[in-house]
Amino acid sequence: MTRPLLIANWKNHPSSLDEAKSLLKHWSRNAKLYKKLSFFIAPPLPYLETVALRARSFAQPASQDISALSQGTHTSQVTPDILKSFGVRLAIIGHSERRALGETDEIVSQKIKIALRAGITPLLCVGELSRDQDGEHFEFLREQLKSSLAGLSRKADSARLAIAYEPVWAIGKSAKDALGPDELSQTIIFIKKILTDMFGRALAERIPILYGGSVEVSNVENLFKGTGIRGFLVGHASLNAKSLGIIAQLLLKK
Ligand code: 13P
Fold this sequence. Notes:
The chain is of the alpha/beta class. The chain has twelve helices and eight strands.
């Protein structure tokens, strides 16, 4: 049985390095707990070194993005080599908050290939903007997955891929507004079916699927048990030292 995945996506928080250090200090007291999980922290880039050093014993650093430009001189871009020098082995790619700034499936697909070539696991984020009675969100998801994963070779690429299902309408709210477990199970089956069509059953089954979108202490258990997901990508609740500890405990509960 593989360890549950827990990824703290700090986005553009906390607002100072001191606050980031204090969060890490709190978590390091619970290092034994976090070590039982595959725990990643994706901080704002200026905090990356601090996270890499201070969380070394219980978490791995991750990046919230990766540059689509692998060669040449590009002011502001952070290349896979730089990320790797800080120990980054997983990059969130195609987060909806980046897509909202104009990142297309084409750019996402390019970034996935760059990450894979560099030996960094791409965590591809997909998710519909809204849900309707007619189930059109399924079609949206199918298109997003197919175009973001276009051109990947079956074996080599799919073996190091991870997916985060993050319905955009459920992000940044509270547990009561998040997706329910039944809808989550249904959607995970759908995503697995698409991955199976693309990569074959054996490979598709090895691709971990995570959920993100208002994961909090009160809904984490219901969303985890029996829904087919392998873990969570947590936003706001990962900025609360205590909440994340409880979430970690609940993921490990038998
Ligand atoms: P929240 O947990 O704040 O809804 O954020 C989810 C998310 O976007 C994680 O990547």
